[in-house]
Specification:
This protein is mainly α and 98 residues long. The protein has seven helices and no strands.
């Protein structure tokens, strides 16, 4: 799978978060910052929006699989809607943990 360039990541992030006040100039830094503070409500909202808006392969391009596992915790997954989406990410978490 070809990794995204920083410009492509910024484009995806800016499309997803068009309604927020931050400037996605450095998408890598933004993702890393939120990965550092998963207990923070803003980080949980950030990843919830990524999980509900992006397809699986885009997520894997934005966030490496070893890091993606850390955002697939119960607190974030249980806040997703609809239930089918929750089940898909629980299954993905189980696969990533093998």
């Amino acid at each position: 799978m070809k990794p995204l360039t920083p410009a492509e990541k910024e484009k995806i992030i800016s499309r997803l978060f068009w309604d927020t006040a931050f400037n996605p100039v450095d998408a890598e830094l933004l993702i890393e910052t939120h990965l550092q503070s998963l207990d923070d409500i803003q980080s949980q909202q950030f990843f919830r929006k990524l999980l509900t808006s992006c397809d699986w392969y885009t997520l894997l391009k934005l966030i490496p699989a070893e890091r993606l596992h850390s955002i697939l915790d119960d607190q974030i997954i249980n806040s997703l809607f609809p239930k089918d989406l929750k089940n898909r990410y629980k299954y993905a978490r189980d696969i990533l943990s093998r």
